[in-house]
Amino acid sequence: MIGEAVRSGARGEFGALVPIRPAVKKTEKCLRGHWLTLDLYDKLAPFSQRYRLHGWLCEVCRGQEVCDPEARRLAEWALLDVTAQHAPDAAPGGGLVLVAYPPATGTLVGRIALHLDGTEVGTVTASPCGRCRMATLDYVHVAAEYRRLGFGRTLVAAAVARAPSYRWTAPLPDGPVAQSFRARIAMRRAGLSCVHAGVLERG
């Protein structure tokens, strides 16, 4: 809330949507592969009012985009800490945040949602098994108007962050768009379901 008004961003008053990436200790390259650590050209560390996140801005990319208005906007991107996952009843109402929903009783499947100003814009479900130390990335979905911004890959990173030492697999989806996204995920195809899932459901 801002005064009595809802923070919507619908009129662009908090800035445009920019790509996001999982936060890392050291960002070496921009989204187009220009080196940021060599101090060849200027770089900035802006704060996205839209997402309420810090990020980076590559001046080389910005110059390219000024010269080519049709170029994809990749000069600026925001960084989201994928280990910061909030409980549903404690999630901030503003900015871009991850909300973790635990598995229902008797199942392994948990869900992580990406919320922008309190509205769900993407989700991932995963089934980690502590006994097998294996996990399956079951499903990833991003609302159409928020695609090609890195939301999907950030959700995948958030799922893996909950069990980083596990052996991860993922099914092969249908459709060219889903297959293109799946081919960028460094996980082997899913095999047989975890035997403990059935035990939990029967128990």
Automatic annotation (TrEMBL):
Keyword annotations from UniProtKB, A to Z: Transferase
Span of domain N-acetyltransferase: 69-203
UniProt-listed InterPro entries: Acyl_CoA_acyltransferase, GNAT_dom
Pfam families: Acetyltransf_1
Protein name (Swiss-Prot/TrEMBL): Acetyltransferase (GNAT) family protein
PROSITE patterns: GNAT (PS51186)
GO molecular function (one): acyltransferase activity, transferring groups other than amino-acyl groups
CDD domains named in the record: NAT_SF (cd04301)
